[in-house]
Amino acid sequence: MSRFAMVIDTHRCVGCQDCVVACKTENNVPEGYTRDWIAEEVHGEFPTLHLELRSERCNHCSNPPCVACCPTGASHVHPLGGVVLVSHDLCIGCKACLAACPYDARFIHPDGYADKCTFCIHRVERGLDPACVSVCPAHCMHFGDLDDPRSEVSRLLASRNHHALLPEAGTNPNIFYLT
Amino acid sequence: MRTDSGNPVSRRSFLKISAATIAAGAAAGSALHAVYETPREKGIRRVPTYCDLCFWKCGAIATVRDGRLWKIEGNPLDPLSRGRLCPRGTGGVGAHFDPDRLRTPLLRASERGREVWRPVSWEEALDFLASKMRAIQTNYGPESMAAFVHGIGGTFLKHTLKAYGAVNIAAPSFAQCRGPRDTAFRLTFGDDVGSPERTDIENAQCLVLIGSHLGENMHNTQVQEFANAVGRGASIIVADPRFSVAASKAKFYLPVKPGTDLALLLAWMNVIVSEKLYDKEYVGKYGFGFEQFAASVVPYTPEWAYPETGIEPETIRATAREMARYRPATLVHPGRHSNWYGDDTQRERAIALLNALLGSWGRKGGFYIPSSMDVPGYPYPAVPKPSRPALRAMSNKFPFANEDISTSVREATITGQPYPIKGWMVYATNLINSLPNQDETIRAIRQLDLLVVVDVIPSEIAGWADVVLPESVYLERHDEMNPELFKQPFIALRQPVVPAPDNQKPNWWIARRLAEKLGLGAYYPWKTIDEYLEHRLTAGGYSYEQLKKQGIIRGKQPPIYFDDGAPAQFDTPSKKIEFYSTQLAQAGFDPVPKYTRPDPGPPGYYRLLFGRAPVHSFSRTQTNPLLSDVMSENSLWLNAREAQKLDLKSGDYVRLRNQDGKLSNPIKLKATERIRPDCVFMVHGFGHTSKALRSAYGKGASDAGLITRYKNDPLMGGTGMNVNFVTIEKGA
Asked: Which residues of chain A does B226 touch, with a Cβ-Cβ cutoff of 8 Å?
C-alpha cells in the first residue's frame, strides 16, 4: 500500500505562486481557474508580526467527504497512493462535492465536470514529482509516500513540528505544513 | 590566462577572470539524465533556450506537445535556474499566447498619443523608418537620434544605431534602477555588483536586507539561495517600512522610517567602529582612508539615529553586533532598484562601506569574484567616429555616471541643448511607466520628428510612436547568446521553440534589415543569426551544435574568494577599498557619506512606496494570460489602523491623489498590519492606460502616474522616486 502526501515547509515558502502557474501549464487549467493557491495568514500587530504563507490545494483526504457524497461515483480514490480523483465522463457537475469539501478545493471546469488537484498522478506514475513540487524555487515542497517510514515526507513529519488544515473536519488530510 | 577578446557585448570588468570550458555532461550528469533521458513520448519535443520574462536570463527547456507550446521548465544544467524557473518564467508560455500582443508593423494614422494605426508590411515600415532616420541625419546629425533599450535583445539594434552614428543609447535600468548601487560600489571597490549580483547568499551566515524584498522580488537564483539560507537557519536582518515576506523570515525586523536608511547604516558603522568589531586585518590590508572614515562616523551614534529612524538604540547595537559576529560571511545586500530618495549613491556607498568593515567583499558568504567564458566578439567593421560626443560627455552635471542617463536624454529632447534630439528608438522598455514624471516624457515626445518602438506588446510608449515594430517573443526567436558573468561561468543560447504566430520578426532581423535600408549593409557581414552565433562560438573554441542541444555550456569555475586565490584587486585611484574617496572629495562631494533628513511630506499625506510582485515584471507582463490569472491587479497596502480611521476596509476601491493633484485609477485596498502607518505601498506596473492592452487596461493603479516628482542623485543622475506623497479618496 501507499499513501501519498505533501509536506510543505512554511519557513522556506516565499508565496511566489510558482506552484500555481506550474499547475496551470502542466494541467492546462482553463483561464480564470486554479487548482492550487497561496494563503497568507498574519498574526500580531505591527511591527511584531507572524506571517505564514501556505501553498494550498486538495488535501487528498484519507476520509474524503467529496467521494462519500458523489452520486455517480465520479469522485473516487485511486489505488495508487490514495489519490482522490474525478472521472470526467462520470461527473454530472452537480456540485455536491464542491459543497462537501471543507477546503474549497474544487471548481466546475468549463467543460462541465468537477475539477481539482490530481497530485499530478500522470507525472507520479512516471516517477516524477507533481509539477508544483518540482518547480518550487524555494524548495519548500516535498511529495512522497507516508506508508514508507524512510520516505522524505515521513522523515520530515517525524522530525519537525507541523500542522494540517481543519483537522476538526475529520477528513484526515494528507497535506502537512512544517512550522 | 586572461585574454581580451574585444567582445562588444559581455561586460569586461576589471576583475574578470577567463574560464576554460569543461564537458558539461560530467558536471551535471544526473541532472541531464532527468531532463533529456525521460521516456520518449509521442508528439513531445523539448527545446532548450533562455528566459526573457526578466533580465535574469535563466536557462529553460520548453516543451511542445503535438505542435503546440505546452510548458517551460528550468534547465538543470543552468547555474542560474538550477532546473527551476520563477513563476514568471514558468508562465512564459503566456507570452506566446498573449491575446493582446503586437502582430504586424504599424504606422501612425493620427496625431501622436491617439492609438490610431495603419497596419503595413515590414518593407513599408522599415522604408518609412529609414527615410525618417536619414532626414534626422541630414538635418541634425546622427547624434540627434537617441535610443532607450532594456535587456540583451537590444544588442543588434544598438549595433545598427552605432553604425548609423548614434551615440546616446540609454538604459533606464541605470538612472531609474541599479545606477546608484553600481556607482557606489565602483567608487568603493572599483567594480560593479553586476547582474546577476555577485552576492553569495548561498553561504551567508548573516544576511542583511534593506528594503530589498527577496521572494517578492523574484530574482531566481537569489530567491533560491535565500530560501536555502532560511532553511539552514542563517541570521536574517531586514530593515523595511513594510513587513515583507523576507521580513517574516528574519531574526531581526527593523521597521525603519522611510528615507532614513542612511542614518541606520551610519549608526551600524558607528557601533562596529567604536566597539572595534570590524575586520582589522582585512581593513588594514585592503582599506584606504580608514582613519578619516572612522572619525567621520563618530557623531552617528545609535542614540542619534533613534529619532531619525525610529529604531531603538539597543536594536541597532544588537544587529550591528550580530553582523560582526558572523563576518566575513555577513552579506549586507546592496539591493537592485536603488533610486529612492536622491541621495542614493551615498546610501549605497554606506552599504558598500559596511560590507568593507565586515570584510565581506571577495569572501565566502559575502561577495564572490565572478568570471565569464571568453567568446570573441564578431569582427564587425569599425563604426564611424562621432562628430559630437554623447550628451553625458558634454556636461559635468553628474560626474560619476558611467552610462547614458535616460532622463538627461529626455531633458535634452525638451530643451534642444546642448544639441537637438529629434528621434527616439525605444526597445523593450515602456518609457511612460519607467521614467518619472509622465508629463515631461510626453513633452519630450512632442519635440520629436520620429518615435519608433520595437516591442512585443502595445505598451503605453507604443501608443505615442510613429512606427511600431512587432518583435517575436523569446520563444519564437534567436537572440544574442549570453556568456554570463557569474559564480559559475557559462554560455546560454536562446533559440526558437515555436514559430511566431503572425507577422512578428526577431530583433536581429529587424536590426539587419534596417541597416540595409539605411545603406549600412556592410556592417552586417553575416546573413543569418546561425552564421553569427556559430562564428563567435567557433572562434571561442565552443561547439554550436552542443550549445543548441544543451542550451548551456558550462566553464570551469576559477577561485571565487580571495582566500582561495581569487585576485584581490581594486580598480580605484588608490588601488584599495576606498573608505575615504578622494575622487568624491575632489568633485566636491562627501568623501564619506553624510546623512540629510528626508522631506517628511505634507501633513496628512502618506509616502508612496512601490515594489515588485513575484508574478510580474515591470509593466510588461500584465496581459500574459497565465500571469494575469494569478494577479490581475495590484492593491494598495495601508496600515490597518489608518484604514480604520478612514473608514476603509480590505477590498474597498480607492483612488490616490498626490501632492501635485494627480489622481490615480481606482485600486483595491489591502488593510494590513504589515506596513507602517506613514506610508502606502503598491506593486509597480499596473493601471495600464493603453487601450490596446485590452486585458490589462484600467486594472489597478499606476505608481508611475503618481510619481510626478523625482530627486536627482547629484553623483550619477539617478532619479529618486520615493519622494511622492498621496492622500486616499474613497470610491471608484
From this structure: 14
